[in-house]
Design a protein that fits this description.
The mean pLDDT is 81. Helix 1 runs antiparallel to helix 2. By secondary structure, this protein is α+β, with helices and mostly antiparallel strands. The protein is 46% helix and 16% strand. It is found in: Cytoplasm, Nucleoid.
């Protein structure tokens, strides 16, 4: 592969990466806590889309526990979406560049 081909591929990688980043809002992940009593759904842009709370948890004396469960579910969803978003971006650029040992494109995926 000559340098001109490589530069052309890099432009295509950048274009596909931009397109993939724009579609990250459609990639979602849900985190649960309290055995599924609290569920939080986030997207690839790390925006919280939905919080679902089992009706049995909505009691004034359980307020602190509910808050803790929401935080735990949100943290799980955020941790899981990172992996899913990276995979989404990787698939968008798959096959564009040769496998070059030591070439790390993670900076493009942030």
């Amino acid at each position: 592969m000559n340098m001109m081909d490589m530069f052309g591929k890099m432009k295509e990688v950048q274009s596909r990466m931009k397109d993939a980043q724009e579609t990250l809002s459609t990639v979602t992940e849900t985190g649960e806590s309290g055995a599924g009593l609290v569920r939080v759904t986030v997207n690839g842009l790390k925006n919280v889309l939905k919080i679902e709370i089992d009706p049995d948890l909505i009691k004034p004396d359980d307020r602190e526990m509910l808050q803790d469960l929401i935080v735990a579910a949100t943290n799980k969803a955020m941790a899981n979406i990172e992996t899913k978003a990276r995979e989404h971006l990787r698939q968008a650029t798959e096959g564009l560049l040769p496998n070059i040992p030591g070439l790390n494109l993670d900076g493009l995926m942030s």
